[in-house]
């Protein structure tokens, strides 16, 4: 059953059905009302304070945050920082009190300098990149080689799971989300719909999907904020059409 709700000013969007995170892959994305995933190369201009609070909270419920290198550079990603209440929530959920690491998918094997801090990132790259780019071997991060000439995203998810990182939060960008959808790896999709028109904003470099048909989703909740943002949470339909 789909839940409908309205958020008043100052209400915490994250308190409405997002906790705990499901095992598997949860993606969190923002789009303008006319379908753009960003503005001038970044998602930030589409966001609002409630969306930013939700982003931080979703990280608190995850074992690892997965992001493409292009998004990490454009948004100047750094290590995850959590508020004290989020640390307490992690403990209550049976997770480590420490912030989750960020896993960056990079074909080149190069990570932005902003990524390095108290919690070392995880670099997911291809075997060829690992052989040809030796500079990153000196950086304080764990390296997962998944795929020979390009990153095999299904193998990358399996490797993260083998490390005990089973609740994966993907924050994009669009190219990485396309790859996860094509590999049938998305279990839940959290969408913020911004009340803005952004026009054509080419982002990512994804190829046409090889899916034989769109994958069905089931809408679990719709929240409307006082400033007209929509917060949607979808779950994959069970194979065979169940909820």
Write the layout of secondary structure elements.
Elements (H helix, E strand, L loop, with lengths): L2 E5 L16 E9 L16 H12 L3 E5 H6 L9 H9 L9 E4 L16 E4 L1 H6 L9 E4 L7 H10 L4 E4 L3 H9 L5 E7 L22 E9 L4 E7 L7
Parallel strand pairs: 1-9, 2-7, 2-8, 3-4, 3-7, 4-5, 5-6
Antiparallel strand pairs: 8-10, 9-10
Structural summary, described in words:
A hairpin with a 4-residue loop joins strand 9 and strand 10 (230-236). The protein is built from six helices and ten strands. The model is unreliable at 239-243 (pLDDT under 50). With 243 residues, the chain is α/β, with parallel strands linked by helices. Helices cover 21% and strands 24% of the residues. Strands 1-9-10-8-2-7-3-4-5-6 form a ten-stranded mixed beta sheet, sandwiched between helices. The radius of gyration is 18 Å and the shape is globular. The protein has helices at 49-60, 69-74, 84-92, 127-132, 153-162, 174-182, and strands spanning 3-7, 24-32, 64-68, 102-105, 122-125, 142-145, 167-170, 188-194, 217-225, 230-236.
Instruction: Provide the succession of SSEs.
Output: EEHEHHEEHEHEHEEE
Low-pLDDT residue intervals, each spanning 5 or more residues: 239-243
Biggest pleated sheet: 10 strands, mixed
The coarse silhouette is globular
Strand percent estimate: 15-25%
Q: State the separation between the terminal residues, measured CA to CA.
A: 9 Å
Tell me the radius of gyration. Answer: 18 Å
**Helix fraction?**
10-25%
Task: Summarize this entry quickly.
By secondary structure, this protein is α/β, with parallel strands linked by helices. The chain has helices at residues 49-60, 69-74, 84-92, 127-132, 153-162, 174-182, and strands at 3-7, 24-32, 64-68, 102-105, 122-125, 142-145, 167-170, 188-194, 217-225, 230-236.
């Amino acid at each position: 059953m789909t839940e409908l709700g309205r958020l008043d000013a100052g209400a915490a969007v994250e308190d409405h059905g997002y906790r705990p995170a499901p095992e598997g892959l949860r993606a969190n994305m923002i789009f303008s009302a006319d379908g753009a995933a960003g503005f001038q190369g970044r998602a930030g201009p589409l966001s609002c304070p409630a969306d930013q609070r939700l982003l931080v909270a979703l990280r608190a419920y995850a074992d690892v945050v997965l992001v493409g290198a292009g998004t990490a550079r454009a948004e100047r990603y750094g290590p995850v920082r959590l508020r004290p209440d989020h640390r307490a929530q992690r403990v209550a959920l049976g997770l480590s009190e420490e912030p989750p690491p960020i896993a960056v998918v990079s074909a080149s094997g190069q990570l932005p300098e902003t990524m390095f801090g108290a919690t070392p990132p995880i670099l997911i790259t291809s075997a060829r990149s690992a052989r040809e780019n030796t500079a990153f071997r000196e950086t304080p991060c764990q390296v997962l080689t998944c795929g020979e000439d390009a990153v095999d995203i299904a193998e990358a998810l399996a490797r993260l799971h083998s490390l005990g990182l089973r609740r994966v939060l993907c924050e994009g960008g669009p190219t990485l989300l396309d790859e996860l959808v094509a590999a049938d790896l998305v279990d839940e999709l959290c969408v913020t719909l911004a009340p803005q028109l952004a026009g054509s904003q080419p982002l990512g470099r994804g190829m046409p999907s090889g899916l034989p048909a769109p994958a069905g989703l089931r809408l679990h909740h719709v929240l409307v904020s006082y400033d007209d943002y929509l917060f949607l949470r979808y779950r994959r339909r069970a194979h065979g059409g169940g909820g």
